[in-house]
């Protein structure tokens, strides 16, 4: 309990809750302190003296001090449940960072949800925190789209789609480049028609109209299938990547135009879940400001990187022998930073970016307000004419899939070795799979479906949202249906341990079973109805005798601050979910067994307990992205 911890902050004590069946509220492990003193009884008396105002009874059992707390006294501190001292450390929290070549699928959404919920936890904890979204606008996936539009002449606008014209455009390109194969047109036509058929089965349309869907679900998938049947086509992608990295040419300007349109649509999708950003960083800016050039110089000067001779030429590699744990995990002593052709690898760019975020690389980079979001805040972007400075981070939290664990370990070791006052955190998370029944709703007949953008096998967030909305609309009005699906999708992404693989099942949406979103919303609505009937709430009440249901609810309410501190320490959002289950259970037990309205004059504290439960639930709803409702 945070109140007891504050009073005993000078002692080395571990805290826990006693096992069920022991009639005490908190347990203090005193072994470490007992080892320091000869007079254990005096130490025990000193501890009890410091916390006596909050103690009704206590018992020492095998080094554990079990305490029964004074619940009436606890209630006098209810305002402190929501007060946290200002923490001046600056956190950069980066999440989403989806390639600007497609719409967001539910795997991306888990990343965004976890990131946004972490942001909200740190806001409650009174941290200084900035949210970043990194846009790889020069990478291979963007290049695939540009190749389709620039070289194969697939139209930029889906409204201009004409299959026969496109096939002829591709044929002309192949002839010009000596890539043409006899009768290749029929194979090309088959690829297009099969993809159009799949989209019809998945979403009900053949050609997506929404720009991010058109590029991600159609152009990107088609181009990758064309690589398989046209030998030599893929080599043009690397020329495009080179043009993108060099910038200021026709290809890079086309890429910028396409990426910007897709990005705006991605932001619109996330705004449905109230997910917003402070800063947008584009990889093209990292290249433009030559961050990697300075990073490489630092790495070579410090002996973290070295030049070696490879089979195809000179390489620059990261020396992993400096960090034995990384070397063991990666099963190699080196990681390539600069290839023989002089291009930088992904890990090289990641390191340069991380060094800039933490101020290890200094550049006079200015920012300017660019994109107006639906919450009326602007996203800042790098701009030579900008006038906004951003201080470097003390801590960076980077929400990136678990498959990047090795690379992220390398980035962490480099950053923290160069400046041990900085902290780099890779916040990994597991995949999202589709439950068999959910997959069938979208025309997919596999038991569990792993998302694959390259194969075109994934469920867009927009389409999932629309499908669930139509289901909810059969039972609820428009406003309530929207709140229910937002809350359901959010909670399904947040309720599990972050590294758990989610088996996404839309059949849970309208299930009132304890622990589901609609159960929490129903509990909140019950409290709201109760308070509306009660009228004005007196916050300066005299507290009468408390029964066991009231006492249990008070103890549960006062765990809220402890739970937030736990999330701060381990960054596990699902701890808040588990707490919400327990709090809802205790309130519903209280509601069912204790007369509240009928005895409000005799026991006014009961209404107050309902009010305090509502406030705590609203704080948790804010983090877990559950909507409040007046009734269900």
Automatic annotation (TrEMBL):
Key word ATP-binding present: yes
Record keywords: Aminoacyl-tRNA synthetase, ATP-binding, Ligase, Nucleotide-binding, Protein biosynthesis
SMART domains per the UniProt record, alphabetical: DALR_1 (SM00836)
Span of domain DALR anticodon binding: 520-632
Residue ranges of the TM segments: none
Enzyme class: ligase
GO molecular function, one term: arginine-tRNA ligase activity
EC number: 6.1.1.19
Catalytic reaction annotation: tRNA(Arg) + L-arginine + ATP = L-arginyl-tRNA(Arg) + AMP + diphosphate
A GO BP entry: arginyl-tRNA aminoacylation
Origin superkingdom: Archaea
Classification via Pfam families: DALR_1, tRNA-synt_1d
Family: Belongs to the class-I aminoacyl-tRNA synthetase family.
Protein name, per record: arginine--tRNA ligase
Origin species: Nanobdella aerobiophila
